[in-house]
């Protein structure tokens, strides 16, 4: 499949992506919060539960794995990548090696992982990956993110994307402005737009084929400590306004991250962008959620074999809710916190 076909498949049929690419540290923190043992075997069991969820491929087009997961298999010995391919789900891989402080700019971050990336991408492609993911992280604050932070991360995202395309992998380009802070929604919109403009300038300078990538942005939201919290419709309007100004129409799809929103709000806001405007936006508006799909299921599973069915039902429910939101057909009144 060529790049444009893979990208089109990732956002086809109103499906979206499920990110299960938490690094071991992040996964262990989530396990610790609910008392699950933090071992390689626990992480394997959790990822086996997810990838073997019956019927999840009817709502999920692709899953993003972490390196450890990419090399793991079910208890019966089937590699997770193969389980996904058998279910008609495209295999993605997170290829950045993590977020570090940006030297000289306290509070700003830079995402690392370009060294040796060409060879790692070839290896991942050889074991079945169709697409990859790299996340750049920005914080809103006094003089943050700095111009240097935006430039460095935009350049790294573009270098990563160019290398992915060279290896035949579709790059998911993920610039995330974090929700933490007391900034208002207007600030988030202004900063998100500057970041996206810098990212697309670098993608163009590095000859990245826009038709062969997917953008994974944050929605435009106020900081979690901001006193004014908007309606679902206000978030949808502010997000679309920002994206329409900054994202070229040639991009084949936008798949939002959830960023710490509740599962219900992430779904309702996606729905509200799709309900009135679905046929009028230049790009399909999809999802690439981790927490907003996994969190309720993780709490239900709690590491217990007996809870696998319940947890899989919860994952399937959240995937279906977001699938419905892509069609503008999500009904929050029939949704429940689990
Ligand atoms: C923003 O995070 C991405 C989407 O997840 P949410 O929907 O929960 O916001 C997610 O793919 C993220 O990049 C990984 O989980 C990050 O893992 P590490 O461990 O690298 O921070």
What does this structure look like?
By secondary structure, the protein is of the alpha/beta class. It has one domain (3-332): Alpha-Beta Barrel (TIM Barrel). Helix content is 45%, strand content 15%. The chain is built from twelve helices and ten strands. The protein has helices spanning 3-10, 24-33, 40-51, 67-70, 80-86, 117-126, 147-166, 185-205, 232-246, 263-277, 291-301, 308-326; strands at residues 16-20, 60-65, 90-94, 98-101, 109-112, 131-138, 170-177, 214-215, 254-256, 285-289. An eight-stranded parallel β-sheet has the order 8-7-6-3-2-1-10-9. Strands 4-5 form a two-stranded antiparallel ribbon. The longest helix is centred in the middle third of the chain and has 21 residues, at 185-205. The protein starts with a helix and ends in a 12-residue tail after the last helix. The chain binds 2-O-methyl-1,6-di-O-phosphono-D-mannitol.
What would a concise description of this structure say?
Helices cover about 45% and strands about 15% of the residues.
List keywords for this structure.
single chain; 338 residues; alpha/beta; TIM Barrel; eight-stranded parallel sheet; two-stranded antiparallel sheet; 10 strands; 45% helix; binds 2-O-methyl-1,6-di-O-phosphono-D-mannitol
Distance between the termini: 37 Å
Bound ligands, each once: 2-O-methyl-1,6-di-O-phosphono-D-mannitol
Topology-level CATH name:
TIM Barrel
Major beta sheet, specifics?
A: 8 strands, parallel
């Amino acid at each position: 499949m060529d790049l444009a076909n893979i990208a089109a498949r990732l956002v086809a049929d109103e499906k979206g992506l499920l990110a299960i690419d938490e690094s071991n540290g992040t996964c262990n923190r989530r396990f610790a919060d609910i008392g699950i043992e933090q071992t390689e075997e626990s992480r394997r069991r959790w990822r086996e539960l997810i990838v073997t969820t019956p019927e999840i491929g009817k709502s999920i087009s692709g899953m993003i794995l972490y390196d450890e997961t990419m090399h793991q298999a079910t208890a019966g010995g089937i590699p997770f990548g193969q389980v996904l391919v058998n279910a008609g789900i495209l295999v993605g891989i997170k290829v950045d090696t993590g977020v570090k402080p940006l030297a000289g700019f306290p509070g700003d971050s830079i995402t690392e992982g370009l060294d040796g990336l060409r060879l790692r991408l070839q290896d991942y492609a050889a074991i079945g990956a169709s697409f990859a993911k790299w996340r750049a992280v920005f914080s809103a604050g006094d003089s943050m993110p700095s111009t240097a932070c935006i430039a460095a991360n935009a350049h790294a995202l573009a270098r990563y994307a160019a290398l992915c395309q060279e290896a035949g992998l579709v790059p998911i380009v993920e610039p995330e402005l974090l929700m933490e802070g007391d900034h208002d929604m207007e600030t988030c919109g202004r900063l998100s737009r500057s970041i996206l403009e810098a990212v697309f300038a670098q993608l163009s300078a590095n000859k990245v084929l826009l038709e062969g990538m997917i953008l994974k942005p944050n929605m435009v939201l106020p900081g979690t400590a901001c006193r004014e919290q908007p309606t679902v419709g206000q978030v949808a309007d502010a997000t679309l306004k920002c994206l329409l100004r900054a994202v070229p129409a040639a991009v084949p799809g936008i798949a939002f991250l959830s960023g710490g929103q509740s599962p219900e709000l992430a779904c309702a806001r996606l729905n509200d962008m799709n309900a009135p405007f679905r046929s009028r936006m230049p790009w399909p508006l999809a999802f690439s959620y981790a927490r907003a799909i996994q969190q309720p299921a993780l709490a239900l599973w709690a590491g217990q074999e007996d809870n696998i069915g319940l947890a899989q039902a919860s994952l399937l429910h959240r995937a279906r809710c977001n699938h419905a939101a892509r069609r503008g057909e999500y009904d929050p009144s029939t949704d429940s916190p689990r």
